[in-house]
Design goal:
Distance between the termini: 34 Å
Radius of gyration: 21 Å
Order of helices and strands: EHHEEEEEEEEHEHEEEEHEEEH
Shape: elongated
Number of strands: 17
Number of helices: 6
């Protein structure tokens, strides 16, 4: 049993807030009875739910991996009319939403789904889902600078958890280095702020993995469906809390 507005939103009727308005307006019926209480629960598999006389069906769960390009907003919509990640999900009728965020200037692996329960677990701080990035930074950080990030570094919103880092590439000519970094939390613009804290600003940031998912050779701007085994592993990871 789930709240009615959640069922309607997952079925693609409208946003959760708009669905609440439809319920309050008396446009939703469950098994032939008008429902106007927002706390009402129903079972989409057994109850007949209609909106303005039209029956809705439970939306099938979708799990997509997108290689987000730089210069795209991690959102389903943008009031300013800028490109958003859902612009790249062509041919998908179901409403899907990004899990977590990649900032406007970052690129790489982004998970989108309509499985709200899984999304909430994956983004909850207690689950410590590992996320790995390639960060191309100005200058070439010394090992002792990277050790500060490995131990955890003080940012304005608190200490970061210990991170895993190694050199991926060093370009002496351009005076830059690409560092592979794995973090286990999701503070806002965290990787960029971590490298700012050691005076090596990020020039390019690309997420290459999240939990058991790897970007591999998925082309920029394209998406693919997760395999059944990937979804199962992701759910197991989401259900597992650790003390990392």
């Amino acid at each position: 049993m789930e709240r009615l507005q959640k069922i309607l939103a997952q079925a693609g009727v409208a946003s959760r807030r708009k669905c609440e308005e439809l319920i309050l307006a008396g446009k939703v019926e469950v098994n032939g009875e008008v429902v106007t209480a927002l706390g009402t629960k129903a079972d989409p598999d057994t109850d007949e739910i209609t909106v303005s006389g039209r029956a809705i069906k439970a939306q099938k769960k979708l799990y997509l991996m997108l290689n987000k390009p730089k210069g795209v907003i991690t959102s389903a919509t943008d009031p300013e009319g800028r490109k958003v990640v859902t612009d790249y999900i062509k041919g998908i009728k179901e409403r899907v939403y990004p899990v977590g965020r990649l900032d406007y200037d970052s690129e790489g692996l982004l998970l989108l789904t309509n499985d709200g329960e899984l999304a909430q677990k994956l983004t909850h701080p207690s689950h410590h889902v590992p996320k790995t990035y390639l960060a191309t930074v100005e200058g070439i950080p010394h090992g002792d600078s990277l050790d500060k990030l490995r131990r955890g570094i003080q940012l304005e919103d608190g200490m970061t958890a210990p991170a895993e880092l190694d050199y991926y590439d060093v370009d002496q000519e351009k005076k830059q280095a690409t560092i592979r970094i794995t973090i286990y939390e999701g503070k806002n613009r965290q990787v960029r702020r971590m490298f700012d804290a050691i005076s090596h600003p990020v020039k390019r940031l690309k997420r290459i993995s999240m939990g058991n998912l790897y970007l591999q050779n998925l082309k920029r701007g394209l998406f693919r469906h997760l395999t059944a085994s990937e979804v199962n592993e992701l759910k197991q990871l989401a259900d597992k809390k650790n003390d990392k």
